[in-house]
TrEMBL record:
Molecular function terms, GO-annotated: endo-1,4-beta-xylanase activity
PROSITE patterns reported in the protein's UniProt record: GH10_1, GH10_2, PROKAR_LIPOPROTEIN
UniProt cross-references to SMART domains, sorted A to Z: Glyco_10 (SM00633)
Name of this chain's protein: Beta-xylanase
Protein family according to the UniProt entry: Belongs to the glycosyl hydrolase 10 (cellulase F) family.
EC number: 3.2.1.8
Keywords annotated in UniProt: Carbohydrate metabolism, Glycosidase, Hydrolase, Polysaccharide degradation
Residues annotated as catalytic: E239 (nucleophile)
Species whose genome carries this gene: Algimonas arctica
Gene Ontology BP terms: polysaccharide catabolic process
Top EC class for this record: hydrolase
InterPro entries according to UniProt: GH, GH10, GH10_AS, GH10_dom
Catalytic activity, as annotated: Endohydrolysis of (1->4)-beta-D-xylosidic linkages in xylans
Record bears the keyword Hydrolase: yes
Length: 340
């Protein structure tokens, strides 16, 4: 029935999905699904620097503005993703002296946040700035940004500029693998240090691209750790999807020993396990008041990035199948009595 998903979590958290402009076009099935069941969207790609400012000094807001128009017309909130990232960002951002890099960064953040002022209610200000290991630059990722800025100061510059441009927007640090204890410890240390320096930060974005066997407890522990260690920091689950596979580290590293492609014959146990996991996760998020938004990274399985990552393979990580029909996972979430 209309609205059962978003209504189940009303006054708890916004129910979101990552989208493309094509998906929200008039008459698209995804657009109808979004109007029907969701109250938040995130741009899967068109609000990244490469999309908004492909060449220095000129902006291309048209695609992003189509998402904004759709959101406003349907009373759907718009999450901004992402101001600074080490990917999907033109090379010119990283050129010149530290002062030039800083001035360019501040201008970009100011211009983009100002364009969406009062319309984008929350921004992923920095995306994936935490290191995956305890290497030389830990807890920070040794990225193009880190190199160009001569260290991690660029994170502060971005948050300060964003706050100044739109004091009402919620500002997030967003990262993956927060369900892993090492990565999470580095992330929380960085947030603590930012707060100690007086940098304006409102929340932590947990991407939550998880695998079939990722324990639900590990995901919820990420939320609980934030709640236990901070006062007033909110949690957004920003990019949730549950792969139907379990891949070893080598698959992510060099695409070896990846789980075999199920093709169109996904085992019933995988479908059921995923539904149970979605149910347990949404129940867990609902029970944690610091979680104020839960976004899946896409609408239907047909369009998920996981069909191409870590290898080309049929995946089915979302709430709607390839025919855009609600999956068992959807019913598992919205119907407490539904037997998986
Ligand atoms: O639009 C172009 C098309 O014109 C061109 O012909 C084609 C050839 O490669 O590329 C198309 O762009 C691709 C774009 O997705 C749209 O499909 C890019 O190559 C491809 O790199 C891009 O991938 C996106 C990726 O971020 C990099 O920006 C994925 O869709 C998107 O799901 C993914 O999202 C990220 C989050 O932002 C951050 N967290 C991880 C998550 C998954 O990687």
């Amino acid at each position: 029935a209309r609205g059962v998903l978003r209504d189940k979590f009303r006054n708890k958290f916004l129910v979101g999905a990552a989208v493309t402009p094509a998906q929200v076009a008039e008459g698209q099935t995804e657009a109808d699904i979004l109007k029907d069941q969701f109250n938040s969207i995130t741009a899967e790609n068109v609000m990244k620097p490469g999309a908004l400012a492909p060449t220095e000094g000129s902006y291309t807001f048209e695609a992003a503005d189509r998402l904004l128009t759709f959101a406003q017309a349907n009373t759907i909130a718009l999450r901004g993703h992402a101001l600074l990232w080490h990917r999907a960002t033109p090379d010119y951002f990283f050129q010149g002296t530290q002062d030039e890099v800083k001035a360019r960064l501040e201008k970009y953040v100011t211009d983009v946040v100002t364009h969406f002022k009062g319309k984008v209610y929350a921004w992923d200000v920095v995306n994936e700035v935490i290191s995956d290991d305890d290497g030389a630059t830990a807890p920070y990722r040794n990225s193009n940004w880190y190199q160009a800025a001569g260290g991690a100061d660029y994170i502060d510059w971005a948050f300060e500029a964003a706050r100044k441009a739109d004091p009402d927007a919620l500002l997030f640090i967003n990262d993956y693998n927060t369900e892993l204890t090492g990565k999470r410890a580095r992330l929380l240390q960085v947030v603590k240090d930012m707060q100690d320096r007086g940098i304006p930060i409102d929340g932590i974005g947990h991407q939550m691209h998880i695998q079939a066997a990722t324990p639900v407890a590990d995901v919820l522990a990420a939320i609980d750790d934030v709640d236990n260690q901070f006062m007033g920091i909110i949690n957004h689950v920003t990019e949730l999807d549950i792969s139907i596979y379990n891949d070893p580290a080598s698959c992510f590293k060099n695409q070896t020993n990846c789980a075999a492609d199920y093709g169109n014959n996904i085992p019933q146990t995988a479908v059921d396990d995923q539904a149970q996991k979605y149910r347990d996760l949404y129940n867990g998020f609902e029970a944690r008041p610091s979680v104020t938004s839960v976004t899946t990274w896409g609408v239907s399985d047909a369009q998920s990035w996981l069909n191409g990552y870590p290898v080309n393979r049929t995946n089915a990580p979302l709430l709607y199948n390839r025919d855009r029909a609600a999956k068992k996972a959807f019913r598992a979430i919205v119907e407490p009595d539904f037997e998986i």
